[in-house]
Amino acid sequence: MPHSHKSQNSLRSFCCPLRPNIPSSLVLILVFILLVIGLVTGCGSSAPSSTVRPITLVATATSAEPRTVLPESMVDELTSMAKRSKRKGGATVRAITAASGEASAIDLTPLRPNGQVQHATADAERQIRAAIDKLGVTLGETASTTPGLSVLPLLDRAAQIPDAEIHVLSSGISTEAPMDYRVIGWNTNPASVIDSIARQGQIPNLAGRHVTFHGLGVAGGSQPSLPPFARTIIERIWVGICERAEAASCTIGHDAPTAAAPVATMPVPVVPVPEVITENGCAVWLNLSDAVLHFAGGSAALPASADDALRPIVEATSRCLVQAIDITGHIADTGDGDDHNDLAGRRARAVADRLLALGLPPALLGTVSGHGAHEPVVPNFTGGIFDEDKATANRRVEVIFHQSGR
């Protein structure tokens, strides 16, 4: 029996509900709104994070280093951090200068008198400059109160402050176990030093941290300056420790070195710089002392007795595949700032000329220069009194060997 018209409509309503009668123009408007919302949401989810990470400064500030200063690269970074801070305490810098005790902290966020973030550009910039200057003064007045120079305990303390980037302001010339350079020496394999520290459980946990080192190998005060190769060893060891500690990045900031006298007076053992530093049996740096060259006082005339010390240099240039040698003269600080007509440079030239006469190929002679009275290897005035022993150590000619493949 055929269904009635009424029953057919009821069946269609049950199986397939009637479509609402929506105008097509309204549908288009709804689609457009949904597209806009999707675009805005999509852009918002992919926007880069503007989170400001706090910074922890580690400063050894000993009597064997120049006075601690804020490197220019750090001033720029701190300024940027302060400008991006959106809340009080959002641009906090902590300074660690001792293995125990509280870390000092300063917030660089520019604030209004009511405690809200300062948005007036000129006022904000003025406040930021003042805060960074204050931080610089505080660091400059910092002085270690413990004997010796030890970076590892301070770095370990910095690692315990969560989510902060770490900047290490130190020469890195440690005098305490397990990194006593008096024991490690300069003719060493950095990898073996790092392995030894790891076996002793002294590697800090720097996982996920960004670490930057400033001033590595730059000595001052009681510590004689290091030759370039020794500074490179310092850098390689500290970067290796940082990488072994699983830091996210390990960077060396090559800022302009400071020559400011240290504030600290607590003694630090002197790490001796040997007369020669070798690598794989070949010299990479050589100190020709006044006792070896026998220059007369104030003279650049090189006596024939120096030849016995210079001949091995010529021999080494062929045996060790040397590409070039640089020669640098040094003199003592006499207190009057007199360079004695470039005496240091003239002595370096005298050594270079004698090496050429002894058979050094002219093509291997690199830079020949002198460092005057204002650039002593080690300060030879102690408490304003001339120190003859240190002055003698300053009267020298240094030779750097540039080898193939380095």
From TrEMBL:
Q: Report the SUPFAM superfamilies cross-referenced here.
A: OmpA-like (SSF103088)
Domain OmpA-like stretches: 282-405
InterPro entries according to UniProt:
Bact_OuterMem_StrucFunc, OmpA-like, OmpA-like_sf
Identify one Gene Ontology CC term for this UniProt entry.
membrane
Q: Does the keyword Ion transport apply?
A: no
- Residues passing through the membrane, by range: 21-40
Which of UniProt's keywords are assigned here? Membrane, Transmembrane, Transmembrane helix
Q: Give the residues annotated as coiled coil.
A: none
What protein name is recorded for this chain? OmpA family protein
